Amino acid sequence: MKKTSPISPGNDMTIKTICVFCASSASVDEIFKNAAMDLGILMGQKGIDLVYGGARIGLMGCVARGVHQESGRVVGVIPEFFMGKDIDYIEADELIISQSMRERKAEMDQLADAFIVLPGGIGTLEEVTEILSMKQLKLSQKPLVFLNIEGFFNPLVDYFKEMIDLKFAKKETLNLFGVVSTPEEALDYILNFKAPQMPKKWFDEEAST
After folding, report:
1. CATH pick for 17-207 out of 3.40.50.300, 3.40.50.450, 3.40.640.10, 3.30.450.20
2. pTM recorded for the entire structure
């Protein structure tokens, strides 16, 4: 299938590359693997490059293979200490080797125009919370959306709501991200994204009084 050109959302952003955070586990249910594959296929069809953690296993490998199935471009970023473990996706169009996990995250952020979060473990959670923190501090306005397969992220969203109820975060925190159920909805969210107005942080409010 012929790819389309990179897509401009309903603002001044052009989405050429999406970073996907997701699990490396191959033991998860097929429904998660199928969703990752479908997301990759849709990205490839729309001419959107993938940047991700560079592995061939788990959901990571599924999304990469999905992009390649539609002749899309895959850029993997993998830390040096993972090399030699036979988990790198050698078919990647570009495989960037970082010196550390922190450098890996910074490289993926720099390359990406937007972020999609698939179900994953501790590493996925760490990656996405850093992006959320940057968005809250107004250091980034890149769109971020959770692909909430089988309600996987419901407890996390409930945790954010509890933070708000207990005054550890402001209600606008929920505007930092989207939560959707299908790969189609995830891309639609990103391609129609408009950055929300966020309130000042508490220390900014005190400084202005």
Report:
1. 3.40.50.450
2. 0.89
